[in-house]
Structure formats: C-alpha cells, structure tokens
C-alpha cells in the first residue's frame, strides 16, 4: 500500500532528493567516498556548498547586499541569535503561535520586547491585523507560517524598521520580496532538507551595530566570513538541500510550486467545508495556511475522532494527528507532497463520511 506522508516535520522530501542523496551516500560527486564521510574542506563539498547557496539566491531572487549562510542549531537557536546580533535596547514581535512565543521569550533576555499584537486569547486561530510597530525598535519579528495552528502570513509586511522573519515552514513555497527583510531564517526540515541545517539570509548592513560582546559561534559575521564553514557544517543536510533546490528549479521555481500549493490546499479546504464530519479550525480563508491544514470533527461527531484517525492510517494516510496542544487533525501539504496524496486523503474523508 502506498503511504502518504502528511507529517509536519521532519516531513516529506521529493523522491528526486531521496534518490540523489542515496547516490551520494554511495559515491559523492565521483569522489569514491560517501557524502557521510567526505571532508567539508574537500573541493567536492565546497562546490556543493557554493552551488546550494547559488540556488537559494536564484530561486528567491535575493538582491545584492545579502549573505546566505547555513548553520546548525535549528530555528530555535535563531530565537536567541537574532536579538543577540540585532537588538541594542528594544525589539517588536507579532505573536501568532507557539514558535513566535518562544522567539519572543528568548528576545527578552537581551532587552525590552514589545508584543505588538497577539492571537493567543483565541488559541492563535487568526493573524492579528491593524497593529502598530514602534519606530524606535531595533527590528520587528514575524513568524510567517504557524505549523501547530494552521495560520499563515501570505504577504510581506511593510515596516519602517528592520524586518526579521522565521520562515521555517513556508520557505520556498511562495515568492518572497527579500528586499523587504533584514533577516530571514528557516529550519530546513519542512520544505528543504532533512533536519540538521538552518538557512539564514541576512542583510549585511544590519550587523555590527550592537554594543554587547557576541560569542564567536553566535555571531553571524563569523559564519559569513567562514562561508558557512567556520566549524564543520551539517554536510549531509546541505547536500540534500542542494538536491531539493535543483528539483524545485526544474519544476519551474517558486512561482510554479506556489501554484501547485494553492491547488492542493484549495482541494482539501473545500472537502473539509463540504464534509459534514469535519470543521476547519481557521475560519478566515485569508489566514489559512497553505502548508498546514488543521481541522477537527464537528461537535456532534467528536466521538468519531479516534476512529477516523485509525481509518486514515489503514488507508496509508500518515501523520495527520493534530499537535498535542490542540488535538484534531493537521495535514501538512509541503512542496514535496504530490496532489495524489491530497486526493487520497479527500477520498478517505469521503469514504469515512459515507460509513458514518
């Protein structure tokens, strides 16, 4: 039976990426060595790193004045690195979910943090609007996609101060005007690569302005100067990212994948709205994520929740359980998920409805 991978992360990778990384595990770039054992200083891997960075620049149309680096530590380390490197006295945060809350908490270690708006009182089921960002803050931080609650900020905010974004779960899923941002970071395990590497895109002019001393490993300038190789980078994850980026380029790039993502999400949201058993957790279509589609059983069918989960698994539908903090169901429809898998989930929902 075919398995359909809806896990929120680590999540589905393109089959192209899996096939190419398997080849690299056996023989990396014709070196006769596995990518698992190759030196990060070898000419083969240096070429891999350079090509991966070049692909990031090309696919996101990154303007001059920005650096692209790959780091360890996940997006969670960026929660601290961002304020450590960018905040002198004050920062501003939009609180739209658990990861935004964690980023905000870390920032408080380095100065005053203004929470410009929050949807916490409504269980983060909408993106706040009509808030004001203090002009004297050192930067404004947003989390563009909220994996747990299923909301997404689909437009680039326009603010008068440096803009920072955690794009861990929707990077490369839609066009982004990088010039509107001073720093973008993304854990790779949703739309790019296996867990273990973090992509950071940073505008050079915002660095070197804080007065505090910064530990060497936590200073972005260290990794820019070291070309992502100040210490040993996550070699395998970078190599896998390279394959995913080639796959995306061959598909037609970010605009082409956005079209597919809109199609997949529309199919599933339409079925959730139609099916009497299910209810979407995000009411406003404008706020609904294209990457993490969250839904619950209708009140009169709550007792069927466990049964549906088991039924879906019997049909090869994996990873649709909602986050433990909210329950229900969550279908993660990242770039690599084929439309056939979305259709399989829809067919499963229809069949379960007909039986109940």
Q: Keyphrases for this structure?
A:
Aspartate Aminotransferase, domain 1; Aspartate Aminotransferase, domain 2; 9 helices; 14 strands
Verbal overview:
The chain has helices at 15-26, 43-60, 74-86, 98-107, 220-225, 235-251, 254-274, 305-314, 339-355, and strands at 4-5, 66-71, 90-95, 112-118, 140-143, 145-146, 151-152, 163-166, 183-187, 198-203, 278-280, 292-297, 317-318, 329-332. The protein has 356 residues and is of the alpha/beta class. The strands form 4 sheets. Strands 2-10-9-8-5-3-4 form a 7-stranded mixed sheet, sandwiched between helices. Strands 11-12-14 form a 3-stranded antiparallel sheet, covered by helices on one side. It has a two-stranded parallel sheet with strand order 1-13. The model has no long low-confidence stretch (mean pLDDT 97). It folds into 2 domains: 4-12 and 253-355, Aspartate Aminotransferase, domain 1, CATH 3.90.1150.10; 15-251, Aspartate Aminotransferase, domain 2. The radius of gyration is 21 Å and the shape is globular. Helix 1 packs across helix 6 (235-251) and helix 2 (43-60) crosses helix 6. The longest helix is centred in the last third of the chain and has 21 residues, at 254-274. Strand 6 (145-146) and strand 7 (151-152) form a beta hairpin.
Layout of strands and helices, then pairs:
Elements: E1 4-5, H1 15-26, H2 43-60, E2 66-71, H3 74-86, E3 90-95, H4 98-107, E4 112-118, E5 140-143, E6 145-146, E7 151-152, E8 163-166, E9 183-187, E10 198-203, H5 220-225, H6 235-251, H7 254-274, E11 278-280, E12 292-297, H8 305-314, E13 317-318, E14 329-332, H9 339-355
Parallel strand pairs: 1-13, 3-4, 3-5, 5-8, 8-9
Antiparallel strand pairs: 2-10, 6-7, 9-10, 11-12, 12-14
Helix pairs in contact: 1-6, 2-6, 3-4, 7-9
């Amino acid at each position: 039976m075919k398995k359909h991978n809806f896990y929120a992360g680590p999540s589905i990778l393109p089959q192209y990426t899996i096939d190419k990384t398997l080849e690299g595990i056996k023989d990396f770039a014709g070196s006769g060595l596995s990518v698992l054992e190759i030196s990060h200083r070898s000419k083969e891997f240096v070429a891999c790193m350079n090509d991966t960075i070049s692909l990031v620049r090309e696919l996101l149309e990154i303007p001059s004045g920005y650096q692209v680096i790959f780091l360890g530590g996940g997006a969670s380390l960026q929660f601290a690195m961002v304020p450590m490197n960018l905040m002198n006295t004050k920062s501003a945060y939009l609180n739209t979910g658990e990861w935004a809350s964690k980023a905000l908490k870390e920032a408080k270690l380095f100065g005053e943090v203004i929470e410009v708006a929050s949807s916490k009182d409504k269980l983060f089921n909408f993106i706040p609007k009509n808030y004001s960002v203090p002009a004297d803050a050192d930067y404004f931080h947003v989390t563009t996609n909220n994996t747990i609650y299923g909301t997404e900020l689909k437009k680039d905010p326009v603010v008068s101060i440096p803009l920072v974004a955690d794009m861990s779960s929707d990077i490369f899923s839609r066009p982004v005007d990088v010039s509107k941002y001073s720093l973008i970071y993304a854990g790779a395990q949703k739309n790019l690569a296996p867990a273990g590497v973090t992509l950071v895109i940073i505008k050079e002019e915002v660095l070197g302005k804080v007065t505090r001393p910064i530990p060497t490993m936590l200073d972005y300038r260290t990794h820019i100067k070291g070309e992502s190789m100040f210490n040993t980078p996550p070699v395998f994850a970078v190599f896998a990212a390279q394959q995913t980026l080639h796959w995306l380029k061959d598909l037609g790039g970010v605009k082409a994948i956005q079209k597919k993502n809109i199609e997949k999400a529309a199919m599933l949201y339409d079925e959730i709205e139609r099916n009497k058993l299910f209810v979407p957790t995000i009411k406003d279509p404008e706020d609904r994520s294209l990457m993490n589609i969250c839904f619950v059983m209708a009140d009169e069918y709550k007792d069927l929740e466990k049964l549906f989960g088991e039924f879906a698994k019997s049909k090869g539908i994996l990873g649709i359980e909602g986050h433990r903090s909210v329950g229900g169901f969550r279908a993660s429809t990242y770039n690599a998920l084929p439309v056939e898998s979305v259709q399989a989930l829809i067919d499963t929902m229809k069949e379960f409805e007909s039986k109940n």
